[in-house]
Specification:
Blueprint lengths: L5 H11 L9 H7 L14 H23 L15 E2 L15 H10 L16 E6 L14 E5 L9 E7 L7 E2 L2 E2 L1 E3 L13 E6 L9 E3 L6 E8 L3 H4 L9 E2 L2
Parallel strand pairs: 8-9
Antiparallel strand pairs: 1-2, 2-10, 3-8, 3-11, 4-7, 4-10, 5-6
């Protein structure tokens, strides 16, 4: 989690100092210069600049959070009528056909750090595909107070394994409870599979009686989920296999 307030901008200035300047970023650097952030110069904003930066930091983070968790990009939709989205929509050069990928960058890099061919989920049988959701079947935000069910159908289209991981929607780090990191994968030796090969994943603050595959959450904290396909196969790309929404448990 990055620093907040004025410390965020001081940290940003430190990070930018040794970096080579990419052409795509020159306009961003032009906007930062009047605020006291410029390569080759110490970060020493005057009182006016400090006030602007202190007020801008929380607004900027809320903008980034909104762009990430409630994507406005039509290309984010995976299956019509469902709330799963493609997490990574950023080209390696961060350029779309007719524009620079401003919102795509804001969405992905608010949640993640790097990007690579293997992280884009576009190559058959290679790397990982990342699907993301912040909402349940009813379009309500996912919350640590509620109990949920995710039904993973059989024959997940993978050559390696699948996993689901819950992330704190403020820190963007893995959600941690006394159970450990909030995740589950098909590699788990204790994973319970239904007779047809499907898996029911239970998510919530209290362990459901008589059920396995439980991921614990913390009341009062929101979260979002990544469902990862490692070495995705044909049915992922042609969408003949689909993942249901996370739904509130009855």
């Amino acid at each position: 989690m990055q620093p907040v307030g004025l410390e965020y901008w001081r940290y940003l200035s430190d990070v930018l100092q040794p970096e080579p300047i990419e052409s795509r970023d020159r306009f961003f650097l032009a906007m930062l210069a009047p605020l006291g952030i410029e390569q080759g110069k110490p970060f020493a904003p005057d009182d006016r600049q400090k006030q602007i930066l202190i007020e801008a930091a929380p607004v900027g983070e809320l903008m980034a959070r909104t762009i990430a968790y409630d994507k406005r990009l039509p290309s984010a939709e995976v299956w019509p009528g469902k709330h799963w989205e493609y997490a990574n929509l950023v080209e390696l050069n961060q350029e779309a056909k007719n524009y620079a990928q401003l919102d795509e960058r804001g969405s992905w890099f608010y949640e993640a750090i790097g990007n690579s061919t293997g992280m884009q989920g576009r190559i058959l049988g290679f790397g990982q595909a990342y699907l993301e959701t912040s909402k349940d079947k009813d379009a309500d935000w996912l919350a640590g107070d509620n109990n949920y069910l995710l039904h993973v159908p059989p024959n997940v289209p993978i050559k390696q394994f699948w996993s689901i991981t819950l992330y704190d929607n403020v820190t963007r780090g893995p959600a941690i409870t006394d159970q450990g990191a909030s995740d589950l994968s098909s590699r788990n030796p204790d994973l319970v599979t239904n007779a047809d090969g499907s898996v029911d994943v239970y998510i919530g603050p209290t362990e459901p009686e008589g059920k396995k595959n439980w991921i614990k959450t913390t009341p009062g904290k929101g979260w979002f989920a990544y469902f990862r396909f490692y070495a995705p196969t044909e049915a992922y790309f042609d969408k003949t296999w689909s993942l249901p929404d996370i739904e509130k448990a009855k």
